[in-house]
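sry for the spam today, last one i promise. struct tokens for design, 159 residues
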């Protein structure tokens, strides 16, 4: 028996000349590069601690993707840090008010029967689409077969 194990280590290297810039390049098995720019941060071991990051990157499919993230200790963005985030975003030409907020509340998983029911609905829809496609292919085959038989009959009548 052959067993393959995979271990990935991502390395973030602080730029020696720009201390607020982290580079993530040349990771083994991972085909991407990212540069992270720390726009603002407050780390005082308090509930409203945060790190505001803007990132740019490239991978096999897309060169120049980017975005921002605010890391906090809270599942909800603390209102107390919003003015700081707005100022930091403005300094680099972004409008923090246009940013989208995510729901990080991570509620409980739905009960097993609900999840199974959802999977059954997905499966039924998938099967329905496949049957519809098969029906169209059968109709096309029938028309092709009819045309082929007509051609054969015409050919045999001429002999």
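last one done:
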């Amino acid at each position: 028996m052959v067993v393959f194990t995979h271990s990935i280590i991502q390395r973030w290297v602080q730029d020696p000349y720009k201390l607020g810039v982290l580079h993530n390049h040349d990771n083994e098995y991972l085909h991407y590069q990212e540069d992270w720019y720390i726009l603002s941060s407050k780390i005082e071991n308090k509930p409203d601690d945060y790190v505001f990051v803007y990132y740019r990157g490239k991978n096999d499919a897309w060169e120049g993707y980017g975005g921002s993230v605010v890391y906090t200790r809270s599942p909800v963005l603390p209102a107390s840090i919003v003015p700081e985030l707005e100022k930091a975003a403005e300094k680099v030409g972004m409008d923090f008010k246009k940013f989208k907020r995510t729901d990080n509340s991570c509620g409980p998983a739905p009960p097993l029967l609900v999840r199974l029911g959802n999977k059954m609905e997905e499966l039924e829809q998938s099967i329905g689409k496949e049957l519809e496609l098969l029906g169209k292919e059968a109709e096309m085959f029938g028309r092709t077969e009819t045309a082929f038989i007509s051609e054969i009959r015409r050919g045999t009548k001429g002999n």
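The chain has two helices and five strands. ok im logging off now
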